[in-house]
Specification:
This protein is of the alpha/beta class. 33% of the residues lie in helices and 20% in strands. It starts with a strand and ends with a strand. Bound molecules: iron/sulfur cluster (SF4) (2 copies).
């Protein structure tokens, strides 16, 4: 059974969260994961321009300093996005990161966009999954010796929740890889609900939506050939007229993300550690240009060497804190457990775990 270490949000003099992160790293055995002179990718998400709930720079800086203390060489990383936003190429991505306070100076380590200038730098990795035999992983992640994953727990419109598995799987896929993961998600417009407000047109990064018809018959229509399956329109339609809640395709997307996560960690068996930050847990992910109010009170940070166990423990802690199924309450038509079940089946880790609190 995997151990998951848990630091709650309570702090006191000389034992703030930065200190507690050090204790978590010690308990998780970071010195066994990271060897002397290892090049260590610290995978995070710098937040889309406008979002505010991403992991604070001070916590990432602490992770960087712990890696340096082990005489290893850390770099902080993420890969470009599929959609047109503030992080779709490396230049914009670095500028967006800097705007949120993430720079070499503040982090104490360089930032390297893992899939290069335009998302074309990737390595094909064999995963022998149920859906994909090979995946396209951002090259800097593949070439790193070890992987330290810092994930902010959020709800997610396509996967129910997004944390370590999504941070690694979707997050370290190259642009082509992200396209592959999204390709089965093709939303449709419910014409009866559509008011032709055109909000979805503004947000669609692929120009796949148009308004057709006249007068009361004027409705949004999605060109399924142009749609890249990013799912943005499903959230931006406040009339609830666009549904991507096709459980089969969403299940496929979740399983592909797991296969990508397997690819990103391949060759790094025993060389990965995961820190999930259960702080300001928003209903939608940090890829949006806003951060909504949290859906549950802040919980703390969990850490493990098992990516499945750390996710399961994070979700259990959320539900325990809220006294209800938090993700199920937001995305009730989605079976968000699919990614955990499949990750366990693919051998990424185990859903049973022992929670070890580090506070008294
Ligand atoms: S945002 Fe919704 S209501 Fe507005 S045009 Fe698009 S589908 Fe119709
Ligand atoms: S999912 Fe929606 S927003 Fe994304 S490309 Fe398709 S139609 Fe456009």
């Amino acid at each position: 059974m995997a151990e998951v270490f848990f630091a709650n949000t309570r702090c006191k003099p000389h034992r703030g969260m930065e200190v507690k992160l050090g204790e978590l790293a010690e308990r998780v055995g970071l010195s066994e994961v990271i060897g002397r002179r290892d090049i260590v990718a610290i995978k995070t998400h710098f937040g889309e321009a406008g979002s505010t709930a991403f992991i604070p720079v001070l916590y990432l800086r602490r992770l960087v300093s712990m890696v340096k203390d082990l005489n290893a060489k850390p770099f902080v990383t993420d890969a470009g996005t599929l959609y047109v936003g503030s992080r779709s190429n490396a230049i914009n991505h670095l500028l967006a990161a800097a705007a949120h306070g993430f720079t070499q100076e503040t982090l104490g380590a360089p930032i390297i966009i893992a899939d290069g200038l335009k998302g074309h730098d990737f390595v094909e990795v064999g995963v022998d999954g149920e859906l994909l035999s090979k995946v396209k992983i951002a090259s800097a992640a593949v070439h790193a010796d070890a992987l330290l994953v810092a994930s902010h727990m959020t709800g997610h419109e396509l996967t129910g929740f997004g944390c370590a598995i999504k941070n690694v799987g979707m997050g370290l896929g190259s642009r082509g890889g992200k396209q592959q993961m999204h390709s089965d998600i093709k939303p449709n417009v419910n014409a009866e609900k559509c008011t032709a407000c055109a909000e979805c047109l503004r947000w669609c990064p692929a120009g796949a939506i148009s308004l057709e018809g006249k007068g009361k018959e004027r409705k949004a229509v999605i060109d399924q050939d142009k749609c890249i399956g990013c799912g943005e329109c499903t959230v931006m339609c406040f009339e609830g007229a666009i549904a991507a809640r096709l459980s089969t395709s969403l299940d496929v997307a979740q399983r592909k993300i797991v296969e990508y996560a397997k690819g990103a960690m391949k060759g790094k068996e025993g060389k990965c550690a995961f820190f999930n930050f259960l702080l300001h847990i928003t209903p939608a992910c940090d890829c949006w240009d806003f951060s909504d109010a949290p859906v549950v009170e802040d919980i703390g940070v969990v850490a493990s060497r098992d990516i499945v166990a750390v996710e399961q423990a994070s979700l259990d802690l959320m539900n325990e804190k809220a006294g209800k199924d938090v993700i199920g309450g937001i995305y009730n038509a989605m079976d968000w457990t699919a990614q955990l079940e499949y990750a366990e089946r693919m051998g990424l880790g185990r859903r049973d775990y022992e929670l070890v609190p580090i506070d008294e």
